[in-house]
Amino acid sequence: MKLKLLKKSCALLGICLMSSIIVASLGIDAAQAASGSGDKLLSGNKLGGTLFPADTKAIATGAAYSWLTEGTNATDAALMATDDPAAPHMTDGGNGPEASYSSATSPAPGSIKGGTLIYDLKSVYQISTVKVWAETEADSGMKAFEVWASIDGLNFNRVGIKENTNGLGSGFAAVTLEVSPIMYAKYLKVMMQKDAAKSIMRLGEVAVWGDTPEPMAILSNNFLRASGPYNTSVPKIATNATYEWITDQPFVTQADLIKTDNDSKNDGAGGYPDLIDGSSTETQADYTVNSAWSSQGKFGTVVFDLKDVYQIGKIDVWTRAATSPVFMDGYEVLVSTDGVNYSSLHYTPNETKTTVNAITNTVSYGVPGKYAKYVKIIMHNANNSQQLTIGEIAIWGWKLYDATLPKKSVPDQVAFSTELKNYSTLYLDWSSYNSVVNQVNKYAVYVDTKDFTSTAGLTPVVTAEAKSIEQVGKFVSYFALKPETTYYVAVTPFSTTGDERKDVKTLKITTPSVLGGEKVGDIFAINDAPYGGGNYMHHGENEDLFLMNKLQLLRDLGGINKNRWWDHSNTMKTLYGKSGLNFHYFYHGPSYVAADNKGGAYTFSTYNEPDLAKRDPAGAAATIKANQESLKSVSSKSLLVEPAIAGVDRLSPTGGLNWLDDFYNSDGQNGALVKTYFDVMDAHPYIKYEYAPVPGLDAGTPEKLIDKIKELKEVMVNHGDADKPIVFTELGWSTYSGGGFLKKVDRATQRNYVARAYMHAIAGGIKTLHWYSFADDGTDAANLEHNLGLIDWNGKAKESYFGYYTMIRVLKDAEYLGAVSNVNNPYYGYQFWDEGKNRYITSLWDAAWTTTSATSKTAKIATTDEGVMVIGIDGSYKYVAAVSGFVNIPLSGAPVFIYSQKGLSVTSIQ
Fold this sequence. Notes:
This is F5/8 type C domain-containing protein. Residues 1-24 form the signal peptide. Residues 84-108 are annotated as: Disordered. Pfam families: F5_F8_type_C. The protein has 910 residues and is an alpha+beta fold. It folds into five domains: 10-211, Jelly Rolls (Sandwich), CATH 2.60.120; 217-399, Jelly Rolls (Sandwich); 417-510, Immunoglobulins (Immunoglobulin-like, Sandwich), CATH 2.60.40; 520-813, Glycosidases (TIM Barrel); 819-909, Golgi alpha-mannosidase II (Immunoglobulin-like, Sandwich), CATH 2.60.40.1180. The chain has eleven helices and 42 strands. The strands form seven sheets. Strands 10, 11, 12, 13, 14, 15, 16, 17 and 18 form a nine-stranded antiparallel beta sheet that branches. Strands 2, 3, 4, 5, 6, 7, 8 and 9 form an eight-stranded antiparallel beta sheet that branches. Strand 29 (603-605), helix 7 (617-634) and strand 30 (639-645) form a beta-alpha-beta unit. The longest helix has 18 residues, at 617-634. It is globular, with a radius of gyration of 28 Å. Mean pLDDT is 93; it is low at 1-36.
């Protein structure tokens, strides 16, 4: 499939005015099931055979599929080779056993390679059912298939997974996934997983059912003018939507944008504010909002309240591009149903050239299954742009339900989706449920390790009471799941009379392991003492306000999994849990473990930097052994994480690695016994200023972490402990004025080091890295611990906060592939694949560059893409068109992330 990266047209949705995540969808009532309720065949399968009789209802969509050849779920080559481009087997209307109607993977022993196809339906449809016909015989089997949906062909969301339960000898039997809640998509990615116990996977057919949706309509209440893109013939839903500018941290709107937003001056629209006055030509200043001059790198953050929940189809953002320079280089879109929990959809760069000297539209698209009542748009004035000028913003989409239908005396069952953030945190969304027609004002959430068809006799884990945020937003987070456990989940409705509909259809989910590792984002963690530590300056009467501000900023990061802390406070478990974080605790005996597990915590440590405290290694080993025994007696799933040495070095007889050797050797058997006393290796690999620098680089740079990881692993290997997972519960750099223990860095350098350190840790196989720390402990410029934070003591985001934010957005759902070839010190780079973005992500930087460097190097990169998207850790956005098969990307000490549909090759850096 060829999709032009970020070059959309009005033809995309048939109208010219238009994370991994683990997600499952609930099956719907038989009366609603797509292939049996009048929905139409969308995928262009040939009619007239046994699979699709001649009278099968179908829409001539012109749909076509291609096999995915890129990424970690690329299609087995033999499967593609046995397909027929002239008469594609997956839509030829025929099934096996004839090879002319089916395709098969290679019979390589132990192979688990499957097949992934992408349907282009040519326009957006409401998707209801996907079927896959797969052979189930002694040598052939499909384990399951997943469905991912997209509107723009770039940003996908997993909307369902279906296991193959057909018995042996079933032949080419169908496996059916009924997609629910409501799903609008133009592209469908169907990932078929081979049964690892079978030698091959043979497929017969794939089919998609659905229907044509209502025309996409304006949701953002833009004024419709006599002519122009927002004219009176444009479909518009009377949402009465409003918007407001955000002035809170972290993406504070530049004040002049708000000052110049006129709701009653000369717009000819009867008092519509500038962003929705219906004018895209913006020939007069009163039609636009403008930041102050010299607003390089500033933000314009606006939140639209659509007043109800919708599926977003398209977003128009009109901004000025001029050679002054005046230029918005891009924006991020986030959606929410409750106004508290936001999900990032994507970054969108502005492809316009500044030489156009005009107001132009930078278009982005929604993501199927990511519903919105609130749409947050964070616009970034380019780092070299003098001014941000915004003309119009228009949000398009579809209704999810009709609130004017007749009221029901018995409410429908609740269709919902689930998302596992990690092993303990579960998000549930049923925002497409028609609570008005069903006369429902309360919901109960049930989670059990046994399947159930009725909630009678069960106790809900969460109740969304009337008028609560959860009830209004129809969204709940639950943060107390166990790792590696299968659960069955249901949501029940309560009518306004107080009656609960108790019959349910559950969703099955299985949580990952404590340490995860299936996706890059499992590594993201933090150190944040809710009320401070040893060098902490108290905020006095504002301490609770500071804590609440921290929790909001932690939530806004959107991908932090754990916080490391020593206290077992139930209040903090709840506060941080609702912000999406669980805890890594210090072990204080078995009496706390059950309650900690209930709060989602499954990792514990005995010591903090015992080498620095000069603890006796043998005594420490004995204590850890005793703690392991008492911990496991309460919870076999809990992990003991030890010993958190302060340094990965041999700079002194008590250096961290020397202490670790003595710790292992204390059993007199080279660690044969000691290694069984704990589950996970823990170290604090601070890059001390006294370490010998990497050749050609300054002392104290993150690239030294590569050596530190290698040295730690060598010690583990020498003691027969090579297979033990590794975490770092502390690592950081301080923006202090010192420079003795750690290299003195400015704020921009600290931001760069955050991203570089995490990527080196990912490449080194580190499972979790707790950045130290989230907040500065005080205001003393010379104090190391007063300046280690991502936010300052007053709660204002530092550059490193924005860097961590960007890194999470780019990498949290990705899979690590390896180091970029042909890139050597002082240049570094790693490559990732993101299934949801359906693209490669290549990071690159120049480790020798500093914030005082006068010039930058340029990487010449070969690509078969028409162009690539570049996201900078400095907050910048850029689309770079390829010229004769190459793109040139400037490199500095600030990593860039390059999005491409095909793999990239660095040919030179100079």
